[in-house]
Specification:
The protein has 138 residues and is α+β, with helices and mostly antiparallel strands. Helices cover 44% and strands 14% of the residues. The chain is built from five helices and four strands, in the order H-H-H-E-E-H-H-E-E. The chain has a four-stranded antiparallel β-sheet, with no helix packed on it. The longest helix is centred in the middle third of the chain and has 24 residues, at 76-99. It is globular, with a radius of gyration of 17 Å.
Length: 138
């Protein structure tokens, strides 16, 4: 299952996606995960040991629901998605920095980016999942 994620992401039409990002600030992607992968991922929500913190949205007036930040080690599907999407998203970020006449900041792979984060004492994982009473968001 997870082994196929990098292939699926690499096979996306990245030229078109990058153009959409530049034109609209967002791009709609086709489905990446299988139904089984999504169900497995949703099943993680109740496994408290997978998360480092839970935020109650009502407490902060963000609406009804909660979101949770994953702990390391990240679930395989999340790690695979991060590693697979990162290179193209780094290209986007660096290109946009260029539009602002700023130097490129983002290295070409996730591991180098995480090393840079560590140098600035940013060591906690940031992937999260959320639940709202009206709509679960993953």
């Amino acid at each position: 299952m997870v082994e196929d994620i990098p292939t699926r992401i690499k096979s996306l039409n990245w030229e078109s996606i990058q153009n959409e990002l530049d034109e609209n600030g967002f791009a709609k992607l086709p489905p990446i995960l299988t139904k089984d992968e999504c169900e497995s991922f949703m099943g993680l929500y109740n496994e408290e040991e997978s998360y480092r913190t839970t935020i109650n949205m009502t407490r902060y007036r963000f609406g009804n629901g909660e979101y949770k930040y994953f702990s390391y080690p990240l679930p395989e599907v999340i790690q695979s998605l991060r590693e697979s999407f990162y290179p193209e998203l780094a290209k986007t970020a660096n290109r946009w920095l260029g539009y602002l006449k700023k130097p490129e900041l983002f290295p070409g792979n996730l591991q180098d980016f995480l090393k840079t984060c560590e140098e600035y004492e940013q060591t906690r994982p940031t992937p999260l999942t959320s639940f709202s009473r009206s709509l679960p968001l993953l």
